[in-house]
Amino acid sequence: MSDLTRFTAAEIAAALADGSVTSVEVTRRHLDRIAAVEGDVRAFLHVDRHGALATAADVDRRRAAGEPLPELAGVPVAVKDVLTTVDLPTTCGSKMLEGWISPYDATVVSKLKAAGMPILGKTNMDEFAMGSSTEHSAYGPTRNPWDTTRIPGGSGGGSAAAVAAFEAPLAVGTDTGGSIRQPGAVTGTVGVKPTYGGVSRYGLVAMASSLDQAGPVARTVLDAALLHEVMGGHDPRDSTSLDMPVPPVVEAARRGDVSGLRIGVISELGGEGFQPGVRRCFEEGLEMLARAGAEIVEVSCPSFVHGIAAYYLVMPSEVSSNLAKFDAMRYGLRVAPEGVDDPSAEQVMAASRDAGFGDEVKRRIILGTYALSSGYYDAYYGSAQKVRTLIARDFEAAFEQVDVLASPTSPTVAWSLGEKLDDPLSMYAQDVATIPANLAGVPGISVPVGLSEGLPVGFQFLAPAMADDRLYNAGAALERLVTERDGRPFAAQAPELEVTR
Amino acid sequence: MSSPEISRDDVAHLANLARIELSDSELDRLGAELPAILEHVKVVQQVAGDDVPAMSHPVPVTNVFRPDEVTPGLTPEQALAAAPASEEQRFLVPKILGEE
């Protein structure tokens, strides 16, 4: 039997359906792979061997009984540790929630369970999803499977690394300013941020409620679409959830035809600050798409240059409000202040929040508290919200001219662990190309397009709200062109990890 | 509009508002970092005119209701399961009022 961990999710689903493998075999092989490479990669915070195998056995039993099953039934998946699960801890990469077990499942998790997908475990992340490198996890960094001295991106570095290292065929991520797409870019995987409201946020521990969106992480565009279809759809428990059908993403991923597609290259993204190797890969991607029949035009989105500034006011403001709930009273860490007899609730709260939150979380809470404070609100939060309007208008104008927009996903390839840890502004600048989509609520995908310095480079497509299918169509076309050029799937080019037996 | 200076004392005040007991070294570091970040983001003040409306949310939705149907909620045991302390089916918290 060939190595099941190298199969795509679609291939696993087909093998399960025709009876050539069982879900227990597939799941066990992935759990073994996790055991073999986790010492190097550290993508997981919790692995659920028992639960995953129990789900797999149940699916195998139902399949043997002739029960009709969802397409991905029996295909294992990893879940970012920011989505709540009743049977595993949900820590959000924070000491504040160490060991916390949620009393309810996130809607996305309920949907995975209803689809019969064994959950392998919960993946590492920057604390409360704040960061671009996964180094802000309170439980230590995840390493990039392409080079374990480098970052896997963030905040969803765990989900991306798990998929890149063949520990899981699929994973769930969340994207507030690029946390699915940028890890996808730097680990050579596919990551999609759906339209805001396209996937339920119920049970997604909020960082910035008006920006957060869960989405699929995979090694192929089709696999991402299959998972997107499972995760997406209206949820009455999320008042911001869109009451619309999931766009036809799977059909679009199977089509992958860019002939006649108008692709707008965003003038403001790709110049200064973007590494030459990243630009070269992106331009090669454009040339391949043009040869395949796409019409490439340049489009200006002048307000995008202010995206980072607006984002780093809107997001911390929402963070300071959302994270106020970690008050040490009902759940989470509670520590007593030192040297205080019979401390008050307020003193306990302040001591617990100091002990439970890491540096980046504190930085953003303080910044957001400032931006929202009386006297500064209009100048900072209010002005940032206006820039948000301008960015949304840029998208509207651009999508009158083109079907999709394109840019490099990230300005650089994966950098070395520790390199930017003491320089928050340099870390924030990494989000320049991904942030506009979150501010406007439109969907985006990152697809591997090539290598620079031996490290993966991501190509980003952006589409109008609820036109997520366009991302999958364009993404699948690019993926096919890249595979034809390279003579093998992109993920197969990753160097072998050292395996612990 | 220029960015107001933000001092170490301001950071201490903000930390108090945010209920985070920052150490001296954390106050020193944030006192240096925050002005640099604010310097970078204050550009938003020069970008949009008065005629541009603020956008708080990507999808304008209002008055979202779901059917008024009773569904099971958490049991007291479930709700209290993660509490740092509980007593008689209630959250047990430190004193709310000061000594005075």
Could you explain the architecture of this structure?
The complex is a heterodimer of chains A (501) and B (100). With 501 residues, chain A is of the alpha/beta class. Chain A has a domain at 4-261 and 445-493: Alpha-Beta Complex (Amidase signature (AS) enzymes), CATH 3.90.1300.10. Chain A is 39% helix and 12% strand. Chain A is built from 16 helices and 11 strands. Chain A has an 11-stranded mixed sheet with strand order 1-3-2-4-6-5-10-11-9-7-8, with helices on both faces. In chain A, helix 4 links the parallel strand 2 and strand 3. In chain A, helix 2 (23-41) runs antiparallel to helix 3 (49-64). The longest helix of chain A has 24 residues, at 378-401. The two termini of chain A are 19 Å apart. The mean pLDDT of chain A is 97. By secondary structure, chain B is mainly α. Chain B has a domain at 1-48: Glu-tRNAGln amidotransferase C subunit, N-terminal domain (Histone, subunit A, Orthogonal Bundle). In chain B, 33% of the residues lie in helices and 4% in strands. Chain B contains 3 helices and 2 strands; from the N terminus they run H-H-H-E-E. In chain B, strand 1 and strand 2 (90-91) form a beta hairpin.
Key terms for this structure?
heterodimer; A: 501 residues; alpha/beta; Amidase signature (AS) enzymes; eleven-stranded mixed beta sheet; B: 100 residues; mainly alpha; Histone, subunit A; two-stranded antiparallel sheet; 4% strand
Q: Secondary-structure map with pairings?
A:
The complex is a heterodimer of chains A (501) and B (100).
Chain A: H1 9-17, H2 23-41, E1 44-47, H3 49-64, E2 77-80, H4 107-114, E3 119-123, H5 157-164, E4 170-174, H6 181-187, E5 190-193, E6 214-218, H7 221-231, H8 249-255, E7 262-266, H9 276-291, E8 295-299, H10 307-322, H11 345-356, H12 359-372, H13 378-401, E9 404-408, H14 424-428, H15 435-440, E10 444-452, E11 455-462, H16 468-486
Parallel strand pairs in A: 2-3, 2-4, 7-8, 7-9
Antiparallel strand pairs in A: 1-3, 4-6, 5-6, 5-10, 9-11, 10-11
Chain B: H1 8-17, H2 24-41, H3 76-80, E1 86-87, E2 90-91
Antiparallel strand pairs in B: 1-2
